[in-house]
Amino acid sequence: MGSGMKTPLILLLCLEILAFAVLSMASTSITNDAYPAGFGDEPGSGSGSCASREDVLVPPRRELYDEGRIFDISHKYRPDMPSWGSTEGLGQFLWLPASMKNGSLANNSEMKLPTHTGTHVDSPGHVFDHYFDAGFDVDTLDLAVLNGPALLVDVPRDKNITADVMKGLNIPRGVRRVLFRTLNTDRRLMWKKEFDTSYVGFMKDAAKWLVENTDIKLVGIDYLSVAAYDDLIPSHQVFLEGREIILVEGLKLDDIKLGIYSVHCLPLRLLGAEGSPIRCILIK
Ligand SMILES: *[C@@H]1O[C@H](CO)[C@@H](O)[C@H](O)[C@H]1NC(C)=O
Ligand SMILES: *[C@@H]1O[C@H](CO)[C@@H](O)[C@H](O)[C@H]1NC(C)=O
Ligand SMILES: CC(=O)N[C@H]1CO[C@H](CO)[C@@H](O)[C@@H]1O
Q1: 153 and 263: one domain?
Q2: pLDDT at position 2
Q3: In angstroms, what is the span from residue 101 Cα to ligand 3's centroid?
Q4: Is the CB–ligand 2 distance for residue 183 below 6 Å?
Q5: Residue 278 β-bridge partners
Q6: Of 47, 127, 177, 181, which one's alpha carbon is 20 to 30 angstroms from that of 229?
Q7: Which residue CA neighbors atom 2 of ligand 3 most closely?
Q8: Alpha helices (H) along the chain
């Protein structure tokens, strides 16, 4: 970290650059017909980075954006994050076959990881082979379901999600997206590299209850599977059979107040893949 003494000066410098950027964008927006007038006036947009000095080369890494209005509810991909069925965690998933240190013009990383790693989405092809063969991959998932108003709820900590638990949550009809925070968050399971089968998830009867008695189409949960380990395939099947419900797993729901948000989740357009890493945010 840079010395605290320099901060005010750097801040001033940054503010100046920002003010200049906003001013120049505002003035170009009058004459430029490449985009509507006024576009680019949003404070903070297009200012680029202020890290022009060596001592401020500290990349920003945050869980919150815009003064706490935007929550990042995706997990970072790290070698020590849990991976399904493994005691060793994800392990190395990034390589740098071309690097500037070895004379390349640029750094170019490659990655290889299971598509159901970290915060990810399941498509119907995950547990139905005929859907897989018919092409119900992550590219076919409805972005209108993956984006919109969402409810964050806490479930009882002493059991898995059963039909009774679902009933008790009293989620009103009309609610289409629900993120279920469970004991998994309290146990910080997504930060433990060993895969843990004792995570909390949906039992088959709860999945069935949700399908039959609610309008929920987006089900989010805070460990690698929405289905409890004991009902792994049956719960997935109940959710995915109708091809309307989308499952988002491995969400990071720590330190967020219960309530209504706008959720935004975007999977990669992986043709032929029944799972995909997904970036999800909540906006207040
Ligand atoms: C550079 O090349 C050497 C020799 O092939 C290799 O051992 C090293 O890991 C490479 N470093 C990077 C950053 O790619
Ligand atoms: C949830 O179910 C798993 C098995 O699927 C079990 O190991 C775990 O103890 C259960 N959790 C609670 C809180 O009952
Ligand atoms: C410019 C840049 O991103 N350089 C990076 C290239 O990759 C090496 C890792 O081998 C990094 O240390 C550099 O920072």
Answers
A1: yes
A2: 37
A3: 7
A4: yes
A5: 267
A6: 177
A7: 107
A8: 7-31, 129-134, 143-146, 163-169, 183-186, 204-213, 232-240
